[in-house]
Amino acid sequence: MSDNSPTDAPRGFPITLPTDESSREILIKNLKHWATTTMDTFEGVLFEFQPSSRWRQIGYPLDPSTRTPKIVDTSPGTLPWTPWDYCAKGCTHFPPRSQRARPTVFDEDKTLVITLTEALQTGVGSASQVYKGRVHLTSIDVVVKLYQMSRVGDEKVLYGLLVSAARNGRNWCNVLQSFRTECSAYEHMKDIQGSHIPYVHGFFQITLPHDEPCIAVVMEYIPGPTLREYAAVNPNPSADILDAVGGSLANVTHAVSMKGISVIDCNADNFVITSNLEVVHLDFGWFIPVSKIHRFEKLETLVSILKAAGFDKTAVNQWIVRRLTDPNTTYIAAFDVPMSESARIWKRLGVRVAPVGGIEGERAKTPVPSK
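Structure for Protein kinase domain-containing protein, as requested:
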């Protein structure tokens, strides 16, 4: 510890949640110190990740009483029954994905030596600082996320988050220490790592150069634009392209949901499109376990993500209509769409239902894109 660092700094990994005013003030003082002594960027810094420093959070880190929406019939640390349970032994709704090769350098008994080469998402106000890195003496690129609590916000923001966290724990796990929820999510999705989501090579307990305790995750680097970046240069893709991108997004959304994960921060920047138009889902720092009430909400999420990314809204409506009216469609079964709710779903998706034969008030079963 540096000579000018406070002597009453809370130590250990992870930092303990302060539940009283005195310990909260100590943590704030140390976070303020670390915020002023940290480097602006860790580009060029070499880190060693030792096998003995690996960290795991397997169970869901929040108590059931803090979950929104409420979930019943589940105990702390477990995931509830989901409407996708019938896919547990193999999903027939979407084509299987091949798994990317995982280099042996990432075996759990090996020390990882990584130099951070490029800042991807850094700055004050973020739950994690994200860098691209290169494994020492190889040509293998990785992503390294540093969960640096001192950069989540200024002193006032941090104090408010700590007070809130002391009451219900949500801001502690979802914001100040989002590695807890993210690690739990990746543990539950081990068998779709390397296909639908990145490989995670480990969560590690480290100390940053300015002596701030930190959890870092090393994961697979997926080259390619985000969904938003792709839509910026392809706002009006052909029907075939939108079918491929939308279908791949549906595939990964279903695969993640099938593992009992419902991502709260589900935006277009958290999806990368590979060169073969496969969509890979990133970032699981804020999730809740899936429950039955989420079943067809994920279908609506697909449409919202594509529109928010910047794709033409009419084209997106046409895409979802094609998928839902195709006689060979698997979407209705895959997302457990209740047909009794179909009219409401069409409306919420921004799709109107055409009148039949001009008879006022009568509706066709086939939806058409809204204008």
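The chain is about 30% helix and 20% strand.
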